[in-house]
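Before going further, learn to read the protein records used in this course. A complete example follows; check for yourself that the lines match position by position.
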Amino acid sequence: QSFRDQLGQICRSREFRQQACQRWIAAEMSDWKSSQRISPAISRTFSRTKFGIHWLLSRTTPPRIHRWLTDSQIRQDRLTRMALLCVSPRFQCEFGRLLLRKRLRDWFSQQRLTESQWKRLNWQLNNPTIEEYIRGFGMHVGLKLLLPLLLPLKAVGAAASLASGNPFYFLIVLMTLPILRTAVTLWRMMASRRPVHDFRDALLVGALPTVGTLAFPLQMHSCCPELSTFLMRDFAAQVGHRLPIYGGKDSRTEMAFIKSVNVVIELIDIWLKLVRSRSVEASSHLATLPIGPAVQTVKLSAWDRAAAKQLAQISLELGLVSEGAESRPATDMAMQPAAKVA
């Protein structure tokens, strides 16, 4: 039918209007599900008021904020995870490890890693010498759970800076995550009672916007260079993939970003040679550190049960439930008796 005929039917037929409206609502909800603005499990349509709210948010907010504002389960899970990152040593360690396993599996499935490389990198994740670094990495990445709250604040800060001519309002919001990363790094440095040079690079890089997430991957380069290099290349690949216009999956831009990491690695090697004595001392110190006190059999607390539940849910979200023997299931790790961790 032509547009004129359809418009005529809409004006004359109430039934046709209802059917057209239902088709439009179904198409909108399908788009929202595909972009993860709403839960894929939702099968029924919303009421008019609720649909109107979702439609308005879909036109004015990013998917993360839309989901955060409208999905109470998502809000509860995110708040629980933020709390666990503050109080649960087990969750701090396993959260970072699960994220790393997800990235390793993605590269392996895309044939960017051979099977031997994938197994070797998975094995290195269990190396006790980098346990503290994986823990710090997980906490740094976990700070991104605050993004649904920080993104609107950035917009408000930018508007306030433009209106007043003072860039302070935008800069203070922009530097919120770097400040929090620095605070986390200082906390782990004091809690672990390790020398300052074990956290020196993490402190420097963590204070930078955007790239600060690479703080602990760069720090572990002296004792675990292969895993550190992979994390830097993965970060570069994500930047190249998300770059507008020229970026994209397997684009030349993405490949160029991945290859550019070689220059960064050369610079890191030069830096380590300049401070070789301290780096060797740090590596030997890490190697001789005790893994931790003997595991004690204690009754699981509410936080332990919450950590077990969230780790199992994260494994499901990341698609790691069916991982092979190389990957330690999060639920098994979470249900082990708690050990005292600094």
